[in-house]
Amino acid sequence: MAPSFDEHTADDPLGRAAGKARSVDGDGRPVLGVDTEVVLDGELLGKPAGAGEAAAMLGRLAGRAHEVVSGLCLRTPEWEELHTSSTLVTFRALSEDAIAAYVDSGEWEGRAGAYAIQGLGAGLVERVDGDYLNVVGLPGALLLTVLEHRRLLDGE
Q1: Which of 1, 71, 93, 142 could form a disulfide with 13 if both were Cys (CB 3.0 to 4.6 A apart)?
Q2: How far is the C-alpha of 2 from the C-alpha of 10, rounded, in Å?
Q3: Above 70 in pLDDT, residue 156?
């Protein structure tokens, strides 16, 4: 079920993740909300509005490290867990042609920071320090830790 939460009403990924999870009726089952943002030098790089903005973002990220921060909210009617996860991603140096080719692929559309590491965007990246799945958009290690803590995994 898709959340009925307006992402523009919260200022950070934790607030947006909580808003998403709280807007869904899980009918007694756990509900997960996640939101991810890209931060470069303290500045939020959101979803680019067009190809020119995507190219500019990628140019700023080229040859540099940035942070990918996710907020996670796992909730039931009885409890709620709120957590964040951060991963450091370093882009390789990128030529204008490499940036143009990636922008032409259209993969940047709807993506914070103008890239998707799980697709062609993997070719932009030199190094990932932390949870790769966090960069994809779901902080997997954090989610598993919360599930284990709440004894929601099979065998627990």
Answers
A1: 71
A2: 17
A3: no
